[in-house]
Amino acid sequence: SHAFAAAHQPVCSIALPGQVMTDEQLETLRRQISVYATICQQLVEMHKAIMAQQGSASGLWLGPSIPFDSSLHSMGHKLTSRQRWTPSQTQLHILERLFEQESGTPNKQRIKEITLELSQHGQISETNVYNWFQNRRARTKRKQQLGGANNGDSELDTDVDIPEEKKGKIEADSTSYTFDA
Amino acid sequence: SHAFAAAHQPVCSIALPGQVMTDEQLETLRRQISVYATICQQLVEMHKAIMAQQGSASGLWLGPSIPFDSSLHSMGHKLTSRQRWTPSQTQLHILERLFEQESGTPNKQRIKEITLELSQHGQISETNVYNWFQNRRARTKRKQQLGGANNGDSELDTDVDIPEEKKGKIEADSTSYTFDA
DNA sequence: AATATATGAATGAACG
DNA sequence: CGTTCATTCATATATT
């Protein structure tokens, strides 16, 4: 029930005059906002459901009052989004070439070299290079294992709701977002 | 599947790495968050009112009875999954705090203590704690080595003194965003 | 617009 | 411990 306070309090506390936000703080903000988005979404759905039921029961309380959707939409477009690195065409080619030439993951030194070279073709960091090789290798492997038979499907979840009974650890203290109406 | 996520697009495309926010941008953030806070407040009030009214009107309608979960499916599918340990927010905070206080990897005894404490905030094992410290340290170090260049950052979220809220993803088995009326 | 896929990034666990 | 793997999360792009 005090989820709101918890969610927006911190934001103000760091917003000291003359100070600036770090990327981490910004990321945190983004997440906090995301939480609000989720909560609002649920509440709206909830409200609709209730209204629907209510409508068939009694015509009362057609509480229009608040234009939720417009409110939500009004704020949707300036916030959040930390863009992720996207390799340029040139960079991608080079990376792809290196991947098939060199075997294994480049070590730190090699990463530095590669990054240096690639930085001539666009913004890039050593972490980007590192991640790229990690992902490239992992996904290549996955494709092979899984690939033999059928189509070329994505790596993603495959949505088959196989009822696994494992589903471990329930959050014991996740009372933060629960509304005990 | 990330339908609503699309609603709150760019938080701040100006937030390039190494850059900081202007007061103006920060003010915008605050305002936008404020909108969410307001909307949530209103919705909750409405909900309470409706529930109260419903309750006195007919003895029916006790309990959820409406699958609000349906709204959850729009954001994170798959109630299954999660085979690996995921620290709860509380646990994470504690771990983070311990990490900066204590020096070096906790010994066996310390691990046991920590595990015991953390187990009050969710499922956890000594191995989890051990791994967490290992990883935390390793990644902190590696970040220093790699982080030098350009866009350099990612891997490891440096902590901010903001009690961060759970990420915007809905997990059936972790943070509960469900409204159990 | 809604959904699906591709892919950069994060992270728990395992390996040497 | 440092490094690597496996899986998942999040978002940009493509498709319908």
UniProtKB/TrEMBL annotation, chains A, B:
Chain intervals for the UniProt region annotation (Disordered): 141-167
Localization (cell): Nucleus
DNA-binding region: 80-144
Residue span(s) of domain Homeobox: 78-143
Protein name: Homeobox domain-containing protein
Residues represented out of the complete protein: 117 to 297 of 391
